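Q: C-alpha cells for this one, please.
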Amino acid sequence: MYDCYLTCPRGLERQAQVDLKHFLTSSIIDKGGIKFSADQSTLYNINLHSRIGMHLLVKLFDFSASDENILYKEIYNFSWDKIISPKQTFIIKIKGKSQNFINSNYLTLKIKDAIVDKIKKIKFSRPSINKDNPDVIISVFINNDKITIYRDSSGISLHKRGYRNKIHRAMLNESLAAGLIMLSGWNKLDPFYDLMCGSGTLPIEAALMAHNIAPGLLRENFGFQKWLDYDSKLFSRLKKKAKSNIKINTDIKIYGFDIAFQNIAISLSSIKSINLSSTIKFQKQDINNFIPYEKNGVIIINPPYGERLKQSMDELENLYKSIGDIFKSKCIGFNTYIFTSNLEAAKFIGLKSKIRIPLKNGKLDCRLLHYPIKEGQYK
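A: Here is the predicted structure, written as C-alpha cells:
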C-alpha cells in the first residue's frame, strides 16, 4: 500500500474527496490536499480520474533534522536504488521553510548528493539531474526540523489535461475550474453557460464531467510510468475500463461566449483535439448582448480581477455592474456564479450573494459568489 497525499487548489479539499468517492473508502483532509492509503490500481485510477487533484504524491519516509549532516545521513540511509536506476534522471522540488536550512539551493544540493552517493555505492553508477523532463520527481516538504520525502506519481500537474495546444495569459487552472463546477451543484443535465469563457476552460471541464470522460485519458503520460515497479498491463486495463465508462449525451447544452475572437479560436482548437465540437457551442459575443437560449440553467463567470490583464478600477466597476444588470434582466430562473479576487469590484454587481465560498487561485484569495435569480425578484 502507498501512503498518499493528493494536492489540490486551496479550498477544494472537500470536493477532492467527493470527486474520488468511488475509489477511496476513507481519506483525511489536509491543508491543500487530502491524505489516504492506496494500492497500485487505486494510485493509477486516481491519476486517471481526479478532476480536482494536481499532484498525487507517495510518501517514502520522514525524519527530523537540525543540520545538514543529519539531513545527509537520513537521506543516504534510504534504499534509493529501489526508486531510481542509474540510467534514469530525477529532480528535487523543495516546499516549505526552516530556520535550519535557509539556503534552499544548498539544501537541494545536499539531498541530491545523498541520493546519488547511495545509488552509486550499490549500483556503481549514478543517475543525473534533469530539470526539464525528469524520469522521477522527488518532492521534499519541510516544516522547521520535520522533513517528509515524497515521490510524485503524476509528473506534470494533473490540471494539465492534454487538450491545450494554445495558451491564454489569464487561463483558469483546469482543476480549479472543475472544482467551481462541482461547487455550483450543476447536475450535468441543465444548460451550462460561461459568458466570458476566455480559453474555454469552464465549458470544456463541464463537458468532460457530463460525458464522464476521465481527464487523465487525454494525457500522454504520468510520472508513475517511469517507476521501476510500473505495471503497464494493469494501467492498460484501467484505461480501457475508463474509456468504456464514457457516456456521450448529445442532449447536453453547454455554451461559451467571449468578446475576443482569439479566445474563441483557442477554445475551438481545444475541443477539436478531443472531439467535443458537437457538445459545446463557442461563440464570439459581447457579454452585453447575451440572451440565454433556455429559461434556466447554471452560469459561471470568471471575470477579470485587474491582476493579470491590468484593467483600471473604472473599467472593472463598469464590467461588474453590467454583469449584475444582465443577471437581473436576462437570467431569471438561473443559478448564477461569479468567481473573483476583486471583492471591491464585485460590489458593483448590485446583488446580494447567497453563498460566498473562499478559494485560492494561485496565490490570490478569491470567492465564488452565488446569486440565484428568481422570478419577480427584480421587477
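A few notes: The longest helix spans residues 104-123. The mean pLDDT is 93.
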